[in-house]
C-alpha cells in the first residue's frame, strides 16, 4: 500500500464512536485495494473518537489460512486494540493478514460508559456466548456506536457477569445467544438509546450482522469488485474514492430500524461472492435526551439533513423516580 493513498490523520470534535469494516470478495483481482479502503476508513473514523481503537481479523478461505501461510486460521480471530488513535494502533506488518482475512471489523471509541483506561472496555470486543436470548451458546466479536440503557437490559434479561463496564457488553451477550432473525430483532427492539452495531459469531466468521437502531448512523457500501463495507459516515466512502483506487457502485445510509446479515455462505469446495443474506425491519427506541447533534459528527450538512428527515424511532420517557421507561410515539 502506498502512503500517498492514505488521507491525513486528524481528529475533529469527537462525539460518538466510529464503526467501519469489510467483507472481502474472494474474486477481487487485488486484495490490497480493499485493504487500502479499510485502513483509510480507520483514519477517517478518528474524527468520531480517539479514546481507543482496534480491529479484528476473522476467518480464512480454504488454502489461505493457517500458520504455514502467515494467514488467519480457519474460524480464527485476531483482535488488536489499545488506547488512542487508530493510526497509533495500526501497523504495516498487519497487511499480510489483512489481505487474507475475509472479514475485518474496526472501531474508534469515544467513551460514554466505561472508563477508557480499562482494556476490557475497548472494541472490538470478544464476548463469550450465552443462551439468554433463547438460542445456542456462541461467542461473538462485536463493535457498537452509541449509548444505551444497560441497566434496563440487565433487569429484563438474565445475563452473566460482565468483564468490563460498558453498555455495549450486555448487548453482545444477548446477541451471542440469538439463533435466528426474529431473536436478533427481539434484542434490537429491547434496546433503549442510541445504537449502531456490527458483530460476527465466532463459529460463522464469514457472516457479518449489521444493525442501525435509534439514531447512531451506519452506512453500507459495495465496490465494483463486490467487496462489502460499512462505516458510520457516508462521507468516508467519498473520501476513500479520492485516496484509493477503489470505486463504489453503491453507498447507502441505512434507515433506523434496519438489520442486515451480509457475507458468504459456506459451501464445501466453493467460494461465493459476498451478498446480503438476510434483512429485517424493527422499531427502535430512543430516550428524549438522545437527540444530540454529535450523532452526526463529521457529516456534511446535506447528509445530516437527509438522515434527520428519515428518522423513525419511538421516544421513551422516564416516569417519576421509579426509573421505569414508557415508550411514546
List the helices and strands and how they pair.
Layout: E1 18-23, H1 31-44, E2 52-58, E3 77-83, H2 86-89, H3 95-100, E4 103-109, E5 125-127, E6 140-148, H4 150-156, H5 168-176, H6 181-190, E7 193-201, E8 207-212, E9 219-223, E10 228-231, H7 235-243, E11 248-253, E12 258-263, E13 275-281, E14 285-287, H8 301-309, E15 314-318, E16 325-328
Largest sheet: 7 strands, antiparallel
Runs in which pLDDT lies below 50 for 5 or more consecutive residues are 1-14, 62-74, 132-136, 319-323
Spatial separation of the terminal alpha carbons:
50 Å
Tally of DSSP β-strands: 16
CATH topology name: Glutamine Phosphoribosylpyrophosphate, subunit 1, domain 1
Strand content: 25-35%
Total separate domains: 1
Order of adjacent strands in the largest pleated sheet? 3-2-4-1-10-9-11
Taking all Cα atoms into account, the compactness measure Rg is 19 Å
Overall, the morphology is: globular
Mean pLDDT: 85
Q: Structural class per helix/strand content?
A: alpha+beta
SSE pattern: EHEEHHEEEHHHEEEEHEEEEHEE
In the CATH scheme, the class would be Alpha Beta
Amino acid at each position: 500500500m502506498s502512503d500517498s493513498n492514505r488521507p491525513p490523520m486528524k481528529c475533529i470534535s469527537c462525539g460518538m464512536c466510529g464503526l467501519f469494516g469489510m467483507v472481502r470478495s474472494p474474486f477481487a483481482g487485488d486484495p490490497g485495494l480493499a485493504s487500502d479502503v479499510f485502513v483509510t476508513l480507520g483514519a477517517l473514523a478518528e474524527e468520531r473518537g480517539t479514546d481507543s481503537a482496534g480491529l479484528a481479523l476473522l476467518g480464512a478461505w480454504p488454502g489461505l489460512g493457517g500458520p504455514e501461510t502467515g494467514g488467519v486460521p480457519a474460524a480464527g480471530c485476531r483482535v488488536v486494540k489499545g488506547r488512542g488513535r487508530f493510526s497509533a494502533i495500526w501497523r504495516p506488518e498487519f497487511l499480510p493478514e489483512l489481505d487474507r482475512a475475509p472479514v475485518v471489523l474496526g472501531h474508534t471509541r469515544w467513551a460514554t460508559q466505561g472508563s477508557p483506561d480499562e482494556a476490557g472496555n475497548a472494541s472490538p470486543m470478544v464476548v463469550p456466548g450465552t443462551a439468554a436470548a433463547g438460542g445456542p451458546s456462541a461467542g461473538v466479536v462485536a463493535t457498537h456506536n452509541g449509548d444505551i440503557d444497560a441497566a434496563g437490559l440487565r433487569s429484563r434479561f438474565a445475563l452473566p457477569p460482565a468483564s468490563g463496564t460498558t453498555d455495549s457488553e450486555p448487548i453482545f451477550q444477548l446477541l451471542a445467544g440469538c439463533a435466528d432473525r426474529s431473536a436478533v430483532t427481539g434484542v434490537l427492539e429491547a434496546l433503549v438509546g442510541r445504537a449502531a452495531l456490527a458483530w460476527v459469531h465466532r463459529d460463522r466468521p464469514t457472516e457479518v450482522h449489521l444493525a442501525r437502531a435509534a439514531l447512531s448512523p451506519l452506512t453500507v457500501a459495495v465496490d465494483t469488485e463486490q467487496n462489502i463495507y460499512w462505516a458510520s459516515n457516508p462521507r468516508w466512502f467519498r473520501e476513500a474514492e479520492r485516496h484509493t483506487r477503489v470505486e463504489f457502485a453503491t453507498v447507502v445510509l441505512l434507515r433506523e430500524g434496519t438489520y442486515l446479515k451480509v457475507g458468504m455462505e459456506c459451501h464445501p469446495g466453493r467460494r461465493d461472492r459476498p451478498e446480503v443474506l438476510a434483512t429485517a425491519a424493527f422499531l427502535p427506541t430512543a430516550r428524549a435526551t438522545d437527540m444530540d447533534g454529535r450523532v452526526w459528527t463529521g457529516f456534511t450538512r446535506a447528509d445530516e439533513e437527509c438522515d434527520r428527515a428519515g428518522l423513525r424511532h419511538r421516544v421513551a420517557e422516564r416516569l417519576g423516580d421509579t426509573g421505569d421507561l414508557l415508550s411514546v410515539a
